[in-house]
# Entry
Amino acid sequence: MRQTNLFVTTLREAPAEAETMSHQLLLRAGYIRQLAAGVYTYMPLGRRVLRKIENIVREEMDASGAQELLMPSLQPAELWKESDRYDVYGKELMKLQDRHEREFVLGPTHEEVVTALVRDEINSYRRLPLTVYQIQTKFRDERRPRSGLLRGREFLMKDAYSFDTGWEGLDMNYEQMYNAYGRIFNRCGLTYRAVQANAGAIGGKGQNHEFMALSEIGEDTVAVCSICDYAANLEQAEVRGGAAFEERDYSGIPVPVKFHTPNQKTIQQLEQESRIKPQDIIKTLIYTGGGRSFAVLVRGDHEVNELKVEKYLGCGEIALAEYDSVQAAAGVESGFVGPAGLSLTILVDAAVAGMTEAVTGAGEKDYHLRGVVPGRDFTLAHVGDFRNAAAGDICPECGEGKLVFHQGIEVGHVFKLGTVYSEKLGATFLDTAGRSQPMVMGCYGIGISRLLSSVAEQNHDNQGLIWPAAIAPYTVHILLMSVKDEGQREVAEALYAQLTAIGIETLLDDRDERAGVKFKDSGLIGILVALVVGKGAAEQKVEYMDRRAGTKEMIDISEAVARVSGI
# Structure
């Protein structure tokens, strides 16, 4: 490609709304352009990178035995109602009606569609297992699209689905896909971790892992062991010790003492004004869920993990109680609620159960209690792991390492769905005995456009992007310093023709621009190698610039060709 023909406009400054570095650089280098909030056009450079990523994904999916198909984005709402996900997805589900007032949704994912498809095509164990995949545009009505391609309303995704006769087959398929994902992300030059995760709105009855690109701007927190390979999303990270606590002899222990704490409703206020350490406080939080109110107790320096609470209660989604609900359930406003004398079901985190005594709300406005003893002053009938893991916690897997936290961007997710969708949508097969059985499913997704942005987030310097060779839009960038110099122009054209003839993807900057402009644009675009055709052209030499290493050296053209051929 000649840069005089390339449809690209670079920007000296990024738009004010571009907060993350990947968003800024993809805009400045002309890879994407915004049409609306969370909706982007991929310019030719951006589309080339996307195609490189897609090709890597296709190669690894095909090698795993998966077959590519393409399903509709427009999906009948009846399918979503049949799977009970129509309301679960809520306002993020983009809904519309056709001229006949039939309701449709724009698919954020395709579990319903693929299950219905396979249900209608396969009815015998002889045609299983089966794995299919697609690369397609998805839609999600994000409340607040942000970070460019990392959280958009329209995005490109690869989703694969496996269908097996039993869990053993699913286990094999899951492992195969898990390994394929590792190869994909390695080939794309991504720094990542595979972590234990929560299934979220996808659902499922089995194991699932998220593949997280490590990045300071990531919205997810990843807990990683300092010694072993344990890694988990913060929502899923277990706390070692579980419900272990010791029975105590409470005789001779003083009763709690009430003390005045005017307007000290938060942990921070108690720490600053009453000089109480957060780890010596028990937070009593009132939640609602499953048609009832209940309390969750965690230490003042810990946070409630609502997913763990939901799993323990089996009541579906829970939420912090509103002001009026707290008053009705506890008889006092938030900030002064305590477990002593509370007539609600109380879930006690194991760290609280292990405290010898603590400060709690007194159940009276502007008062707290000192010397509250777990097991004596409130029941320990429901003790468990109800908090988020914290940095420095002992690893729940090896018991030796400590948890270290990183921020991450989710770029892939693999699920063992089991029979959740096949049972609801009637995807069954006849087994060897002629009995009808539900298919056992797996689901495997990669955010293609999100992966592009994540790689950009990890690969840049103060000049611009630095693409890994496997997904760079071009392999080499030839910079012709002076189009008016006949000797330079001839060398640049000959080099361009030679590289193109041997299949090297080459971008030739043949514009009549100043050298400074060409270097600036080349740095922004981020092709790994630039060959500068300047004053050395008369001696058949070019300047070889390695963007990642930050090195420059004058070498013979023949050597430059040999080096580029080896990339």
Remarks:
- The radius of gyration is 29 Å.
- The longest strand covers residues 403-418.
- The CA atoms of residues 327 and 497 lie 78 Å apart.
- Residues 167-187 form the longest helix (21 residues).
